[in-house]
Specification:
This protein has about 375 residues and is of the alpha/beta class. It is about 45% helix and about 15% strand. It has 17 helices and eleven strands. The strands form two sheets. A seven-stranded parallel β-sheet has the order 4-3-2-1-5-6-7, sandwiched between helices. Strands 9-8-10-11 form a four-stranded mixed β-sheet. The structure holds magnesium ion.
C-alpha cells in the first residue's frame, strides 16, 4: 500500500529531508510513498518546480501570489492554489514543517480532517495547546512528532502498556548548543555566525538560535507536556553533548529506556511517516567502533534563562506559551538581523511574559490574537533595547 504524503513547507530544511526519506524508502521498496501534495511560501521557486517535476503531486499550495502565478504558468496537471487546506484532502499523512507560528493552520486543518499529523512545527502545538487538544479526539486524528527528542519519547513509551501509571519522568536530552560551558558575561557579544554554528545538528536558522539559548529545549518541554500529558514536575532536561541519546523515559520500577541513534532527522521523519512500521533504510544506525563515550550533565539554568522561562509559561498555561513563543520569534528575528544582542533574547521574553494577561484560548482566533498582542509588545521592547 502506498502512503500518500503531503508536505507543508516542502522547500525548507525538514521539507527537503522528508523528500530525501521518501526517495530512499522508495528506492528500497518502490511505491512505498507518494508525494500527494506540497506547500511552500514561494521564496524558492526552483526547488518547488523540481519537486513537482520529480513527484507529480496533485496539489501545490503557494503562499506568495507572484510565485504562485509563475508556478501555475510553468506546470500542467497540477492544481496550484493559495489555500493550504487543499493539501490535506489528498493525503494520508501531512508533514507540517512550516517554520514558526505560521504552521498553526496546517496543524488544525490536518487534525480536523482526521488525518495523521507528522509534526515538525512545534510552535503550533505549544502556542495552541488548549485548542489543539480537543481535536485529537476526532477519529483518525493523531500527532506523531518529527522532533528527535519527542520521537525518542514516543518510542520509549511504547515499552509501557500503562504509561499514565508507570511513567515517573521524561528526560529530554539537550546538546547544549554552541555555547555550552560559557557563562553570561562571555556571551554578551556573540555573533549571529557563532550562534548558527551548531555542534551536532544542521538545522534552519530560527531553531539553531533557539538551541543556542536553550529556548528550543524549553519549548520542547512544553511540547512533551502537550504530546504525552506528563506534568511539568515530571519532565526534566539533561545536557548530552553527543546527541546520540535522543531522550529517555524512567518508569515506576526505576528502569530507564532510552532511544539511541546518530543525529539525523531522517530517522524521526521516517518514523512519523511509517508508524507503527519502521523504515527499511537504517537512517540512524550507530557505528559502535567509533562511538567511544556518552556524557551527561545538568543544564546551566542561570546562563540559559530561556529554559526556565518555558517551564514558567508552560505551568501558567492558557496563552502564556503562545506569548512566550511569539516573543521569542520576534527576539530571534531581531537578533538575526543584528538589532539586538544574543543576551537580549531572554530579556525580551522575560518582559513580555511579565505582561501576560492570564487569558485562556478557546478557539484558533484567540490564539492568533494572543500571538499578535505578544508580538506587538515584543516589538516595542525590541525597539527599546
Ligand atoms: Mg528537538
Amino acid at each position: 500500500m502506498t502512503v500518500r504524503v503531503a508536505i507543508a513547507g516542502s522547500t525548507g530544511s525538514i521539507g527537503t529531508q522528508t523528500i530525501g526519506v521518501i526517495r530512499a524508502e522508495n528506492a528500497r521498496e518502490p511505491g512505498s510513498y507518494a508525494v500527494a501534495a506540497l506547500s511552500a511560501g514561494g521564496a524558492n521557486i526552483e526547488t518547488i518546480l523540481a519537486q513537482i517535476e520529480e513527484f507529480r503531486p496533485e496539489v501545490v499550495s503557494i503562499a506568495r501570489e507572484d510565485a504562485r502565478r509563475e508556478v501555475a504558468a510553468l506546470t500542467t496537471g497540477v492544481l496550484v492554489t493559495s489555500d493550504s487546506e487543499d493539501i490535506v484532502e489528498s493525503a494520508d499523512v501531512v508533514v507540517n514543517s512550516v517554520v514558526g507560528f505560521a504552521g498553526l493552520e496546517v496543524t488544525v486543518e490536518t487534525l480536523q480532517a482526521g488525518k495523521r499529523l507528522a509534526l515538525a512545527n512545534k510552535e503550533s502545538l505549544i502556542a495552541a495547546g488548549p485548542v489543539v487538544q480537543p481535536l485529537l479526539s476526532i477519529p483518525g486524528a493523531e500527532i506523531v512528532p518529527i522532533d528527535s527528542e519527542h520521537c525518542a519519547l514516543h518510542q520509549c513509551l511504547r515499552s509501557s502498556f500503562e504509561p499514565e501509571r508507570e511513567v515517573r519522568r521524561l528526560l529530554l536530552t539537550a546538546s547544549g548548543g554552541p555555547f555550552r560551558g560559557k557563562v553570561a558575561d562571555e556571551l554578551a557579544g556573540v555573533t549571529v555566525e557563532s550562534a548558527l554554528a551548531h555542534p551536532t545538528w544542521a538545522m534552519g536558522p530560527k531553531i539553531t538560535v533557539d538551541s543556542s539559548t536553550l529556548m528550543n529545549k524549553g519549548l520542547e518541554v512544553i511540547e512533551a507536556h502537550e504530546l504525552y500529558g506528563t506534568p511539568y514536575d515530571q519532565i526534566e532536561v539533561v545536557v548530552h553533548p553527543q546527541s546520540v541519546v535522543h531522550s529517555m523515559v524512567e518508569f515506576s520500577d526505576g528502569s530507564t529506556i532510552a532511544q539511541l541513534s546518530m543525529p539525523t532527522m531522517h530517522l524521526p521523519i521516517g518514523y512519523a511517516l511509517g508508524y507503527p512500521d519502521r523504515t527499511r533504510v537504517p537512517f540512524g544506525a550507530i557505528d559502535w567502533t567509533t562511538l567511544s563515550r556518552l556524557d551527561f550533565e545538568p543544564p546551566d539554568r542561570e546562563t540559559f534563562r530561556c529554559l526556565d522561562l518555558a517551564y514558567q509559561a508552560g505551568r501558567a498555561g492558557g496563552t502564556a506559551p503562545a506569548w512566550l513563543s511569539a516573543a521569542n520569534e520576534v527576539a530571534v528575528a531581531a537578533f538575526l538581523s543584528g538589532k539586538v544582542r544574543w543576551n537580549a533574547i531572554a530579556d525580551v521574553c522575560v518582559d513580555v511574559l511579565e505582561r501576560h494577561d492570564g487569558a485562556t484560548p478557546v478557539c484558533v482566533a484567540d490564539v492568533i490574537e494572543a500571538d499578535q498582542v505578544a508580538r506587538r509588545i515584543a516589538e516595542e521592547i525590541v525597539e527599546q533595547q
